[in-house]
Amino acid sequence: MNVNYIFSLLSVIVLFLLAYVGVEAAGFQILFGVIIPYLAIITFIAGFIYRVLNWARSPVPFRIPSTCGQQKSLSWIKPARIDNPSTKMGVVIRMILEVLFFRSLFRNTKCQLKEGDKLSYEWEKWLWLGAIAFHWSFLTVVIRHFRFFIDPVPSCLQLLEKVDGFLQVGLPGVLFSGIVLLAAVIFLFLRRVFIPQVRYVSLASDFFPLFLIIGVAISGILMRHFTKVDVIGVKELTMGLVTFRPKIPSDVGSAFYVHLFFVSVLMAYFPFSKLLHLGGIFMSPTRNLANNSRRIRHINPWNYPVEVHTYEQYEDEFREKMVEVGLPVEKEIAPTISEEKE
Amino acid sequence: MPDDLFKSDELLSKLDPTPPQTGWMDTPVQIRKGMYCYASNPKSVEYVGLPNARAWNPLDDDWKLPENWEEIIFEGFRERLDRFRSFKVFMDICVRCGACADKCHSFIGTGDPKNMPVLRAELLRSVYRKDFTTAGKILGKLAGSRKLTLDVLKEWWYYFFQCTECRRCSVFCPFGIDTAEITMMARELFNLLGLNIDWIATPVANCYRTGNHLGIQPHAFKDMLDFFVDDIEDITGVHVEPSFNKKGADILFITPSSDIFADPGTYTTMGYLILFHFLKEQYGFDITWSTYASEGGNFGSFTSHETMKRLNSKMYAEAQRLGVKWILGGECGHMWRVIHQYMDTMNGPADFLAEPVSPITGTKFENAKATKVVHITEFTADLIKQGKLDLNPGRNDHLRVTYHDSCNTSRGMGLLDEPRYIIKNTCKNFYEMPRNTIREQTFCCGSGSGLNAGENMELRMAGSLPRANAVKYVHEKHDVNMLACICAIDRAALSVAMEYWVPDVDVTGVHELVGNALNLSGQNERTTDLRSEPIPGLEGDDGE
Ligand code: SF4
Ligand code: SF4
To answer: For chain B, how are helix, strand and coil distributed in percent, rounded to 5?
Structure first.
């Protein structure tokens, strides 16, 4: 057992109890339904902006892209325009591939020692697949939820929900994205626990968001399929939030408040944790710069003059020896010295 | 090779990547013989005016640090976070997915979890969280933060001098987190406390004073090249005449000094001399060597950005003094990372130089338009493509060659196909190593970033395992007997690594192959190669 994930699991359980008891027993609907969500969203937006601006405050003094393919040099050598971009366009495509399709993670290999003395590197697609499944389903779920904040629900969202529900089982229909999200999160958790190296580097702050998202997903699924939450009531509340006329409908169950509380915690936690890799990936100087530093001069804003050893100092020290072997010098040796030598 | 070093099969069999039972924060560092480099010589530190020059020993309890060393680190950390967005972002966004873990030769070869790039970075990050993040301050260990103590500092030192700044991890990281960049910052911090290793500090001091890492003084530099001139005359029957410090030459040539000093790099230097002679005879090519800028490599880059800049300033200063049009750079790895990604920004603008154009083919090197330094394989590949060289690859027929991409030129530049083109045109038997071990995924020689000392041989040999293993694969499959590379450290390091792991394979520079293949007017039968070894099949006849 590992203190890191026990602690994270316990924290999520405590969060659950807080919301559940808070609503069921203490009747803090306004706190959990209005105040905390508002605070969370403010924290999320302000925190996100603050962190990104804070990164942006530090300059990028040197162009240090990791070049992952042939450079652009001689006209007859084919450059890798995307993996080693020399133009802005190339960089944009490289970034799109990174952000949307996790290009670098796609390269992942697994190194193993075989037959005692042969290293092999197999393509390791599971992490990539798990990550893709997780992020895309998460995005789908987030977008899907916009129907609670827009009235009337735009047709594109209705379409999305239709596609997402293509499985056509259950009523209300099981949504594919929710299932995938839960499965992917569990996969990411299990790999963190079972791959020894990954477990070894994992912190409590790596497990906490996983449990939290599991909590979000489970409470969401419970609400939709088991406690059968009053969707009209929920929408009343959410529309109240976005129109700044918050109101607490009478009959939404506590599962909803738990769900909303988990999401609030996730949002507030987001900017101050590793989850901010969402913003960071755009700022990574090894990915978002063109490899053109020999072709175009790049300025370091804090470049300062340094002490150097000049040619004059060098020649002053070695002049005699240089003259002796016939190396050209700037200043001839003073006659007295050369006379002495002769 | 030290006597007490394990044999290669022992090293392999004791390899165990299972992490220890205790968590990494609770596993104290043990600085072990064979895995670390000796401390910097105070004279060298003093010569370049870096702080806290004193004799010290990493194995001692007392590292003789300045009284307020914690404060120095804290301030140094803060300053670097403010100066380098890379550092700040990389401190914040790692998700510990572990994709980088088994990409590092240092981890693959030692099995030590603190050599996983992610954990190497966490060593520093843990203190960053404590000092610079609120969560880290409040939650402590739960947020993965810890206080900087002397033991933590020692752990940093030990492991950041086991990273060769190869950047292989950064290719696989979904956010491009480059542990090499983090290592560079860590080493800057060490230098604020006088904690460099001598294998870096002394070359830096030498380079500052004499122009090159080895401390070769101008007259000796010329003598050494003259020595190659004699060898070339013996081997080819042709007398070549390099120019030194020649004002008004067209081009200045700069290459790492270790190729002038140690085999097999010396044969690459002979290759350059032969090439330049050929071009001079045929096309009036006018190039000069410099004794002042007699070093391409830059061990300053393993010390701090500032030291890198101080040493590198010689290149432009000398080019300006001599009045050349542009600079041609020889085969070297980290020299090219510096030239390609840093030089113009640090030492430029070089507006006293002209945009580089090959005087022989007229090719414009557009890609080097601003920095005005051309890589010799770009230059030579162009010559071959335009049919300007008279090559007889037959003289390399006995070689079965594979090619090692050096880390810096592949992941910090993307120079991949130019050298391959030259190799394919100078010898007929060329075999690639497996795809996951070449090009941008190439494995380090294990001795980069100033770690090619003698006292850390176990670390070096462990680090060279993935590279050597891939060479062994092509050696067994295709009978490969020659490993070509374009890096001076590789030539020194891989020779030892081959001796250790794949003894039947030798190491060569790409321009040694060129030197062997290039026909010179007035040459003799050329029955020996540049190593003065008889060429099989050519003994007694004059080839084709
Ligand atoms: S691959 Fe990148 S994000 Fe993943 S553990 Fe390594 S450094 Fe961190
Ligand atoms: S830069 Fe190279 S040596 Fe350093 S951590 Fe990354 S892979 Fe390992």
So the answer is: 50, 5, 40
